[in-house]
Amino acid sequence: MADTLEFNEIYQEVKGSMNDGRLRLSRQGVIFKNSKTGKVDNIQASELAEGVWRRVALGHGLKLLTKNGHVYKYDGFRESEFDKLSDFFKAHYCLELAEKDLCVKGWNWGTVRFGGQLLSFDIGEQPVFEIPLSNVSQCTTGKNEVTLEFHQNDDAEVSLMEVRFYVPPTQEDGVDPVEAFAQNVLSKADVIQATGDAICIFRELQCLTPRGRYDIRIYPTFLHLHGKTFDYKIPYTTVLRLFLLPHKDQRQMFFVISLDPPIKQGQTRYHFLILLFSKDEDISLTLNMNEEEVEKRFEGRLTKNMSGSLYEMVSRVMKALVNRKITVPGNFQGHSGAQCITCSYKASSGLLYPLERGFIYVHKPPVHIRFDEISFVNFARGTTTTRSFDFEIETKQGTQYTFSSIEREEYGKLFDFVNAKKLNIKNRGLKEGMKQSYDEYADSDEDQHDAYLERMKEEGKIREENANDSSDGSGEETDESFNPGEEDDDVAEEFDSNASASSSSGDGDSDRDDKKPAKKAKIVKDRKPRKKQPESKKGKDPNAPKRPMSAYMLWLNASREKIKSDHPGISITDLSKKAGELWKAMSKEKKEEWDRKAEDARRDYEKAMKEYSKADSHRGERSKKKKKKQEKLVKGKGDKKGATSKSSSSKSPAKGMSDSFKSKEFVSSDESSSAESKKEDSEDEGAASPPPSSEDSGSGSD
């Protein structure tokens, strides 16, 4: 027979809630590790008194009773595992695993039995239900009636808050059955009463969570936080972990107490108690116990009179009373030498501490993540600036934590730490310079479909098309020059049909690159014709082919009415979410069918675009003919100006020369367009016309 038995996905019943975890049975005893909190319950084999196997809601369950009265319940077993467990209990624990079924008659009249910390309501020999008395928060009595009130369960949607028992009167003298019932409950109930004197008191400590100044009274079994507005009583059994963390400024210390279950104030739950101390604060402490009691209870861990830093005294007392070790940062050191990293989580800035077995973030809200619950980590580029990056952690339960605005200098240290702890890094190639885009690896999970994201992409494409069609000036140049894929041919045709636009945009770009002194003059000349260019297309061409839809959008258009009929009155937002869920759950074969339809639509679009481009080229030829007519008109006006200057040059050669030069410039700036081809024609004309004008002026003087 094997020395150990292991069971996954076992549920432990604790205060009415079912905690998922792993159960291991060995020769030494029973160990259960909670998957959510990482808390480990260890039951020694010598402490086991009884084992019961029974049918429960989640299959079959195992109830273990210890010799000191504690009860442990584990559910989620299969019926076939009974023989294996029974043999193991006989061989290693010398116990018979008894089978007891719950009574399901539905009667409400029976017998109450108190066994250890358990109240059992039985009908005959079969139990109907059991109540762990540690769940009881208050017990009140009335005439022939006892009322039990319970702690609220934060993990359950519905909590049992009250049970009333009717206790019939008896004929025995001197014994009140109602008071006897209540005393049995109160002796085991989780009702904290501050009786006796506190061991010690720490006054006016600064508390970050819950916020305020509190006096901390240390009692033998619980911690009492006394503030101006609220009081909290924290049993030491609810303390899960203790942390002592140095602040980045090296002048303050955080003392963090992890609690499970958390303390409550209204609807707020505090899973962490965070105290902030100054390193310079000292205290002399005297325990309210004699030296013999101190030595007997704490075995040298505390003395009656102690002195030192305030944070050292608080942590030392808590460690001795809670009997748990204090976790401090390991060997991690950031870029500045501190043992933490400055970052932001949600809306607040705080400090992230890499520990030997996890990460802890303080302080608002506090977060503790163990390495064994991390699925992978991810290094992402900052969304607002390249001088910082984001550190993302995703747990095995699917919860994601994003710590943002981390300085770029911390990247190497944090990456080496994560790598040394052998955590799964989602984007391995990022360390060599962080040049990869976040989008390249953020959406690597192709199985997930975001309907909202698809809709935003489609709307973005439509806005881009409208911007390309309706914009003018430099905006038109920028948008059209970045059109992807099949649109390149379409853009080229448009530019070919109007050479002035392409030449002016080319000159504009060269001017920006070369930064020549003539930039100012060219910009003034080029800006004028740009306003004339979009006259032919102020709106989108209705004859232009429409862009093809994606496979998802084709499926959505075909399925929209069916979704509406299946869910009457559904809103547009909820319809998009529902469609995304249906698309994600769709089989691969059905998705391939819509992919083929999308591919056919894309081919039809390309074919239609070619035909549209040919028609557009014919329009371009007509515009070229119109351009040639304009050039002839310009040349005709130039000849008339030359004749005028020839007749007027008889008076003064210098004046005739200046008038002739002025007329050429006047013609080129006023009549020509901003296109380079037209400017070259006008410059050639100006260069050819001066010789005859000078000759004419000479003959006139003769």
Features:
eight-stranded mixed beta sheet; 702 residues; PH-domain like; alpha+beta; disordered C terminus; 17 helices
Structural overview:
With 702 residues, the chain is an alpha+beta fold. Among the domains are: 4-99, Pleckstrin-homology domain (PH domain)/Phosphotyrosine-binding domain (PTB) (PH-domain like); 111-187, Roll (PH-domain like); 200-327, Roll (PH-domain like); 341-421, Pleckstrin-homology domain (PH domain)/Phosphotyrosine-binding domain (PTB) (PH-domain like); 551-563 and 573-605, no CATH class. Helices cover 37% and strands 30% of the residues. The protein has 17 helices and 31 strands. It has an eight-stranded mixed beta sheet. Strand 17 (222-226) and strand 18 form a beta hairpin. Helix 12 (551-566) crosses helix 13. The termini are far apart. Mean pLDDT is 75; it is low at 429-453, 471-529, 531-538 and 645-702.
What average pLDDT do the residues reach?
75
How many H/I helices?
A: 17
Provide the spatial order of strands within the biggest beta sheet.
4-3-2-1-7-6-5-8
| Main sheet summary | 8 strands, mixed
Structural category is alpha+beta
**What share of residues is helical?**
25-40%
**Unreliable runs:** 429-453, 471-529, 531-538, 645-702
**For the terminal residues, how far apart are their CA atoms?**
133 Å
**What is the count of β-strands?**
31
CATH class of one domain: Mainly Beta
CATH fold annotation of one domain = PH-domain like
Describe the global form. extended
> What's the gyration radius in Å?
42 Å
Give me the CATH architecture of one domain, please. Roll
- Report strand %: 25-35%
